[in-house]
Write a structure and sequence with these properties.
By secondary structure, the protein is of the alpha+beta class. The protein has one domain: Clam (outer membrane lipoprotein receptor (LolB), chain A). It contains 5 helices and 13 strands. A 13-stranded antiparallel sheet has the order 6-7-8-9-10-11-12-1-2-3-4-5-13. It is globular and about 55 Å long. This is Lipoprotein. It comes from Flavobacterium muglaense.
Length: 251
């Protein structure tokens, strides 16, 4: 009887241990698993067409080719302009005369498209977030900040909403401090909503983005922009894919 009792106790401890492991799974682990991060990062590069508008005006229309490790990327605009980035260096066509947003464009749209796969990047800090919005029960929500010196805008933050049923990211509120004015950015936060997920080689990718104003405690406010991702595919690249023309400027 003692042996049977000991066996039952051991089995109970194993069961409790298994349940504890399930409970211990972090927000980022659940989201990355749902987004098939391991499959995504096993690919070399992804390519897609991105059309973006704000306030009814076209903001961007380009084909993006990005390494899945985010170290290199190419934006080939429909008007013939090109932006290439290699880690922290950005090269761009001399025909781009208004170059204030070149670095912003080089990194931001790729970051938004890769966002579900970058939650545990070096320099990320995750904290609990008390979601007081009326539909809070539908989401797991946490806040992302960054260690000093991370990227071009370490003062940015994100409030990330994952659908409780699917663990896919549906919304991410954020501030843009690229200009360096954090107080101004925090006075006007925005949000990106990820919609119409489609599987590409087993990886769910949002094919529609909607941009909103955002207010803490309220959530999404005014609709301000839209984006569509089409012709999404995983590709292989060559040494020449991200090679800048000698005439290109640097930023």
């Amino acid at each position: 009887m003692k042996k049977i009792a000991s066996t039952l106790v051991l089995l109970s401890l194993v069961f409790v241990g298994c349940k504890s492991n399930e409970i211990a799974e972090t927000f980022t682990q659940k989201v990355e698993k749902a987004h098939q991060k391991e499959v995504f990062t096993s690919k070399q590069a992804v390519q897609f067409d991105l059309k973006l508008d704000f306030g009814g005006q076209e903001r961007l229309n380009a084909q993006l080719t990005l390494l899945t490790n985010s170290s290199q990327g190419l934006l080939a605009f429909k008007n013939g302009d090109t932006i290439i980035f290699n880690k922290d260096k950005v090269f761009y066509s001399p025909t781009i005369t208004k170059d204030e947003s070149v670095r912003f464009d080089a990194y931001t749209w790729g970051y938004f498209s890769f966002f579900p796969f970058k939650l545990s990047d070096q320099g990320t800090i995750w904290n609990a977030y008390e979601n007081k919005e009326k539909d809070a029960a539908n989401y797991d929500t946490e806040k992302l900040t960054f260690k000093s010196g991370t990227g071009d805008a370490p003062d940015d933050w994100y409030v990330v909403y994952a659908d409780k049923k699917t663990n896919l990211i549906e919304k991410a509120a954020y501030i843009v401090t690229f200009s360096g004015d954090k107080a101004k950015a925090e006075a006007n936060p925005h949000a990106i909503q990820y919609l119409d997920y489609k599987e590409v080689d087993g990886v769910p990718i949002a094919t529609k983005w909607v941009f909103w104003g955002w207010k803490e405690g309220t959530g999404l406010t005014d609709e301000i922009g839209h984006a569509s991702l089409t012709n999404i595919k995983f590709v292989t690249v060559t040494d020449d894919t991200f090679k800048a023309n000698p005439s290109f400027k640097t930023k």
